[in-house]
# Entry
Amino acid sequence: ELKVEQNPLFLSMQEGKNYTIYCNYSTTSDRLYWYRQDPGKSLESLFVLLSNGAVKQEGRLMASLDTKARLSTLHITAAVHDLSATYFCAVDTRNSGYALNFGKGTSLLVTP
Amino acid sequence: EAGVAQSPRYKIIEKRQSVAFWCNPISGHATLYWYQQILGQGPKLLIQFQNNGVVDDSQLPKDRFSAERLKGVDSTLKIQPAKLEDSAVYLCASSLDLTSTQYFGPGTRLTVL
# Structure
């Protein structure tokens, strides 16, 4: 069974600070995704990482993938309040028909 | 481009009652997924369709849950009878094909009393 673990599960950080969210997965996967979910809203796709060493950046968020370590990171630079949300990583595999296996999510709160 | 549509957005029922959810995927998307998201957890796949065929329903509690995707477009998910532990958000997602990014609908929040 493919397991996806995120840490931390809860994160409170001040505006302007940097932090990293970690995502570990248990078996070889084809792709890794990062999604954002605002309270009461659905999931918004942020990044898709396809290969070892992949790095993608959008604004203050940067995601990377190390397939050998089965680890992805989501780095937040100079956080702002608008980034407050829950962030999920998810992986898919050919064996699972490319359905997504999600972590529990990291609830991020950015305070002044 | 219109996103994934779901209805209703909210539903409150008593245990042992029946309920049905509807999903209209993005036009042209062949693959459709239903996920269950329990409060504080990540979504969990219930069933996956490719056109009108089932790809994976291994995690669908088939004694009470059923789903169909007639004509390979809209889909309905039914629970009969509902249990307290079915309280969750039911998310529908669609993708162009099996290997493409999934786009999620707004979800249906179900409360079973």
